[in-house]
Description:
- The chain is an alpha/beta fold and about 325 residues long.
- It has helices at about 1-25, 45-60, 80-85, 95-100, 120-125, 130-135, 180-190, 200-205, 215-220, 250, 255-290, 300-310, 310-320, 325-334, and strands at about 30-35, 65-70, 90-95, 145-150, 155-160, 175, 190-195, 210-215, 230-235, 240-245, 295.
- Strand 6, helix 7 and strand 7 form a beta-alpha-beta unit.
- Helix 7 runs antiparallel to helix 13 (about 310-320) and helix 13 (about 310-320) packs across helix 14.
- The protein starts with a helix and ends with a helix.
Amino acid sequence: MIKKVLLLLVLFLCAASLLLASGNKENSGDVIKITIGHGVTENTAEHLGFLKFKELLEAESKGRFSVEVFPNQQLGGDRELTESVQLGNLTMTGPSSAPLASFCNSFYVLDLPFLFSGREEAYKVLDGKAGQKLLASLDQYNMKGLGFMENGFRNVTNSKREIRTPNDLAGLKIRTMENDIHLAAWKQLGANPTPMAFGEVFTALQQKTVDGQENPFELIANNKFYEVQSFITATRHIYSPYVVVINKKFFENLSADDQALISSTMKTAIDFQRKEAEKAEAKSLAVINAANVKVSELSKQEIDQFRNKLVPVQDKVKAKAGSEIVEAFLSEIK
Ligand code: TK8
C-alpha cells in the first residue's frame, strides 16, 4: 500500500518535471530533473553505475541537472519501468535486454545462446556497430538507448540436483525472464520453464513454486538465492546486458550540448559500472562458495551438450529479431 502511494507520488512528480523540462530549455535557469528506476538492490553494480551517472552529470552540468535513482523495483519491475519510460512518466531505466525484447523485438538477438565467448567480446560488439544499430531500433518505441551496462553471464541454480548436462534438467521447474525465446530454450533443454518478474523470484524459490532459476553470480549473491537453492552450475548460457534507456521526447527536447553531455557521462558511468560488475562477479562467487551450495564448473564437452541442444533456438531468434540484426551481430563475432 505504502509502496503504491509512493509509486504514484513519484510518477506524478516525474510527469510534472518532464513537462517542465520539455517546456523550459536550460537557459531559463531551471533545474532539469531526471528520475531513474531499476530492479536491483543498492549494492548491485547497476545501481552503482546509475549513482556514478548522477554524480558526473550533476557535477559537469554545475547543478543544472538533478538526478534521483530509485532501486529495488520501488517503481516497478523491468516491464512496468519500461512502460513508464515509454509513456514519459519516468525519465530513465535499465531493464535486462530479455524483457525489453518483448517491447522491441530486435533485442531478441541477444538471446542467441552462447552468443559471446567472454565479456570483452560482449563489450566490443555491444559498443560497436551491431550494438549501436540495436540501440537505434528503440527510437520507434519512444525510447532512446544510451548504452549497455553489465548484468553478467547467467548460471542456472536449483534445489533438487546437480546439473551437468541437459538430461539433468528433465522436468525441473525453472523461472525464466519474461521472454518467449528463453521459454522456448528451456523447453528445448527438457526443463519446465515459467516466466516471472524478478521481484517474485526469491519467494517462488523459497516456497518451492519453482525448483530453480538462472542469473549471474552477482544477483544470486545479492538476492541471497543461495539460501534457498542447493546447486549452482556455471553454464554461462546467456549474456543479457542492462539496456540503459531514456524517454525519447525528454532527450530530444534538450539542447544538443546537453544531449552530448548525457551521452558522454553515461559512457563514463558504463565503463565504471562494468568494472564494478566484474569485481562483483568474483566477490559473489566467494560468498556463494562459502554458503551451503554446491557450485559446479562444466567441461567443454558438457557445455557443448547444451550448445548443441539449443541449435534450433537460433531460427526462432532469427524469426523474432529479424535476420538483419542477427547477421549484424554474427558478422562481428566470427
Ligand atoms: C532486475 C532484472 C534482473 C534479471 C532477471 O530488474 O530478471 O533475472 O537478471 O537483473 O533485470
